[in-house]
Amino acid sequence: MAPVKVTKICCIGAGYVGGPTCAVIALKCPHITVTIVDLNQARVDAWNSPDFNIPIYEPGLVDVVKQARGRNLFFSSDVDTGIREADLIFVSVNTPTKKSGVGAGFAADLNYVESATRRIAAVANSNKIVVEKSTVPCRTAESMRTILEANSKPGTRFDILSNPEFLAEGTAIADLFSPDRVLIGSLQTPDGKDACAALASVYANWVPTERILTVGLWSSELSKLAANAMLAQRISSINALSAICEATGANIDEVAHAIGFDSRIGPKFLRASVGFGGSCFQKDILNLVYLSESLHLPQVAAYWRQVVDMNEYQKSRFSKTVVDTLFNTITGKHIAVLGFAFKADTGDTRESPAISLVRDFLSERAFVTIYDPQVDDAQIWLDLADACPLVPLDSIKKQVTIVHSALEACKNKEAVVVATEWKEFREIDWAAVYAHMNKPAFVFDGRLLVDADKLRQIGFKVTTIGRGERV
To answer: Model-level pTM?
Structure first.
């Protein structure tokens, strides 16, 4: 059988993965109709908003949506019609870490994936290529295939593919326009290879064929977890070294620069920080830990677990440094936290180090003022309520204030904590900030962002992650 010619794509899930990915597919493939469906009507309405006030902040995404929406890119809450009409369906729903039951705290919660799969089986009345786009544990495709085959209508066939995303938030559109690789996993059967070729032909509209890698289904699923685990491992490694630098008087910037010159290591992901966040790194490593334990590989599980443990240590170490430096108490003191997103150029706060820092400061009974240029107030309150489940939100609001400029955040504070590496924080008028702060005025740079020497000349006492005080 020849590969299917894909003319209609449906993406289930209009979130951080499905939205940008399928918007770019629509832009690059004007001959393919792309419909992104989601049960969340408010989210669909935001994607369809006349002023393009879309629900995700990602540089360049609005321009893509402006060019394609209404031409061959559509957003809808009519999931069933989207499924019925499509040749190829991306399943791009959330797979959070389980909070209860078997594997709680480690395993991925595949409830949404299973619900989407059952919906496809119930609604589809013609052959479909079903592509798992969500980050999932190994062998999830096998479960999806079992569900689809058990519930399919007579004469309807489903081919399952794995097509993990390797996007970095903040550069997702650039990553989609020019990916390092597109990975497609399929069963190594004639039908599986035909389905793989059909999806590869979609990407071939703009991605060079040598960058489209076709592998076995299970290799594809594991490759996604492995890639994120290796990247997170580098961050935890450099953060572990940052603690040694602070204790010895070495400079982590200089150390990272020196080792990054080694062509075997390279310079990327060697920037020390208060810790990694985002929806993927921690979730995927914990997934790998759970997988390893399930396969009776406890030493492997312990190895990967240490990457997450080091990240937690880095966050708690940084908040302890703030307390220790402010004369061993921050009770009743006023602290500005600049940045709440897990990194710059995104509004995403999932697993953001800033959440841990603010939680620690609140537990020390400090007053915290937060400013982030992209995260809305409602999301901050939601995250803090989640981080402090035993504290009523009204009590949190007595200790936390959200403002809408960096200068306002810093006014009359004892300390400023840089938690996200937004470019605007580098360009703040620090002299004006100093003039309106309580003295001595402290700056804690958790992102290697500010010019410490310049701030010291103004009068600040500066603590930078990964830099020791010894000369």
So the answer is: 0.92
